[in-house]
Amino acid sequence: MKKKLLIPLGVLLFLIAGTVLFGKLILFPSYQPPLVTGDHEVEIQEFTWVDESRVETFTDTGEKRALTVKFWYPKEAGSYPLVVFSHGAFGVIDSNYSTCAELASNGYVVASIAHPYHAMYVKDVNGKVTIVDRDFMKSIYVGNGTYTPETEQIVYENSRQWLSLRLADENFVLDTILEKAGEGENAPFSLIDTEKIGLFGHSMGGATSVQLGRERKDIDAVIDLEGTMFGEYVGFENGIEIYNEEPYPIPLLDVNSEKVHEEAIRTQQELADVCPGWQYVNFYVGEHAKDYREIIFKDAGHLNFTDLPMISPFLAKMLGVGDVDARECIGNVNEVVLTYFDHYLKGEESLALQSEY
């Protein structure tokens, strides 16, 4: 049951092959992204950086791990907060294109990381395409929808591996960005206010962002778009995870669908006899955090927190969407993300957020 909360996706490897076979006309028809609300004209650049300190573990070639990063930023000169985005399992660098563009139009430098072999596909700046790793895909579904102490431990161990890889990715990208900003390189790096940094992510990317926000001292606020915060697991005993008792240190926004929120409550009730005192990890973190807020989206599905329902309605329907209007939902998500970061990164007094949308 807890595994369903991690990533409620039903993607199969055949969908990846289908993406190649059917192409953009069928799976990715042309669409019009939501209009941005800010006054800044938005520029876009992509970079592929090689982390010389890490060997790529998904291959046996000895190559170093390479990360492709996409930036959205204001064309106008200035000093703007930095926001870093991490996609979910089987996501892509443009999973939240509209969110990144909206932030940039309102005066942010936004960097989206593509995590090779965790992403559905990654195309680097040289045209090399890397698709999702089959073993990683299988690991996502171990024990999905069931609970036994044995499967729970496997899921715990898998989550530690996922998190370790993604934290290393995000730390490398963030450190590279800050180094380039400090050296005065051209835009987007010259535009970054390195004293104002926010993180957000979807699903597994949300979990990664939450953990990075706990570990680094230069992060000011984090937004988790429907990701189980498995980085808060610090051990495993007697068939269940042990949670970090240290209060979460910085502002944290937890955005969930009503379905997942209610499912978490039901899971707590159903496991009450098997695992007395067990609590869904996001609820535990919220009760102990210094500054935590949860927002519920009614009638939304897991993919409604991304652009995929607009980019590929066919794929999104297979992977999990709700009855909500996709364009309206992502528009509300983008408004929430902007409002939250405006408050914590720009010092805007108002934090006019609804508890439900």
Shape: globular
Please identify the oligomeric state. Answer: single chain
- Give the strand order, joined by hyphens, for the main sheet: 1-2-4-3-7-8-11-12
Decide which structural class fits the backbone. alpha/beta
Classified by CATH, the class is: Alpha Beta
Count of individual helical segments = 11
Outline the low-pLDDT stretches: 1-14
The appropriate CATH architecture is: 3-Layer(aba) Sandwich
Q: Report how far apart the termini are.
A: 25 Å
Q: Write the H/E string, N to C.
A: HHEEEHEEEHHEHEEEEHHEHHH
Concise description?
This protein has 357 residues and is α/β, with parallel strands linked by helices. Helices cover 38% and strands 23% of the residues.
List the helices and strands and how they pair.
Layout (H helix, E strand, L loop, with lengths): L1 H5 L6 H15 L14 E14 L8 E11 L5 E7 L10 H9 L3 E6 L6 E3 L5 E3 L2 H7 L8 H34 L9 E11 L1 H12 L5 E5 L7 E5 L2 E4 L8 E6 H13 L10 H8 L3 E6 L10 H4 L1 H7 L6 H21 L11
